[in-house]
Amino acid sequence: MSAPxxxxxxxxxxxxxxxxxxxxxxxxxxxxxxxxxxxxxxxEGRRLFETWCKDAGCTMGLDQMGNMFARRExxxxxxxxxxxxxxxxxxxxxxxxxxxxGVLAGLEIxxxxxxxxxxxxxxxxxxxxxxxxxxRFAPAMLASGVFAGIHGQDWAYAxxxxxxxxxxxxxxxxxxxxxxxxxxxxxHAFFELHIEQGPILEAEGIDIGVVTHGQGLSxxxxxxLGKESHTGSTPMPMRRNAGLGMARxxxxxxxxxxxxxxxAVGAAGHIDVYPNSRNVIPGKxxxxxxxxxxxxxxxxxxxxxxRAGAQKICDDMGLGVEFEKVGGFDPVTFDExxxxxxxxxxxxxxxxxxxxxxxxxxxxxxxxxxxxxxxxMCPCVDGLSHNExxxxxxxxxxxxxxxxFHAVVETAGIVA
Length: 416
Ligand code: HGY
Ligand code: MN
Ligand code: MN
Description:
This protein is an alpha/beta fold. Helices cover 35% and strands 22% of the residues. The chain has twelve helices and 15 strands. The strands form three sheets. Strands 1, 2, 3, 5, 6, 7, 12, 13 and 14 form a nine-stranded mixed sheet that branches. A hairpin with a 5-residue loop joins β1 (59-62) and β2. α1 (12-23) crosses α3, α8 (242-258) packs antiparallel against α9 and α10 (336-349) packs across α12 (394-412). The radius of gyration is 22 Å and the shape is elongated. The two termini are 12 Å apart. The mean pLDDT is 97. Bound molecules: (2S)-amino(hydroxy)ethanoic acid (HGY) and manganese (II) ion (2 copies).
């Protein structure tokens, strides 16, 4: 790898302006974003990203999962490219930076290389992965998962949202289903910049997270079946209250996660109650339990205790219960060489840094199975994310993008 130019910097104002411009698409109701995957808002955000990439001289690629690739040529066109990116889709009450920072920082690297007239040996490809969030269509990181051979494409196309719409149909409807075979692209390396989505970097006053690992995730969808009846006239002993069963299972989830303190976490963010009427005892509830830990054995222990405990709770209450694994991935160890490229970039640029384990899942967690991969993290205010109040500073955004820039360009090789 050729030594990077010492004072290589990005245009932090331009990156910030692009973030603010993208944030206008799919606005939330409280200052954040609701640009869920495969909605018209997602399509509009894709069009803006594509326009910007074409303006930067990139040639565009699009695969059959809607993954977008903006290629800047290297001096050796046959050399495997260095990919850099994240996701443009957001949570329904998402922030302006989760995923978007990583995609637009990839574009900023290309814009800066153009400004400086720098050529790299390996081509560089800015990337937008479809449906990282997994909110509308579970699981999370769906398209990068197909790219990495984790999920079949037909299975992915058949995933349905709450309205029963199919992923494959929605991708075609918004006009972003490409022709390229998913996963055919080979990579020299992949880098992803992401906000931490946790409190550590800000609390310690650290500029950069050097992501050495990603914790593993398990999503279990649980359906509890009771009996709908009148909330007023049904005597308490006669009730088969699915909602109460769920409440006791959620208590169990909290207890199981806390039993593996300080690293394990557990909760349910998705809850559907049927018929969800004020004066009807819920006859059915469907909810997804999200369990995470940096250790696979802990995840497996939590999954086992959840199923056994929930089964007992429901048996004791005369309720039916069904379990379905709807998402998950093992803990991830990122590539040593790529991680050290991130670390030395932070040192060279004079940014404080520390090793960190990613609490959230990212497309990099799957791509790490296909190519040497690493992540850069920047702080976020109060560690808050998946909330419209998600916020970062321009300084944090610039520092993260500069470290990403150095790691990517060093890996791609500068041709003097
Ligand atoms: O769930 C996650 O960790 C990611 O934000 N999709
Ligand atoms: Mn994200
Ligand atoms: Mn997210």
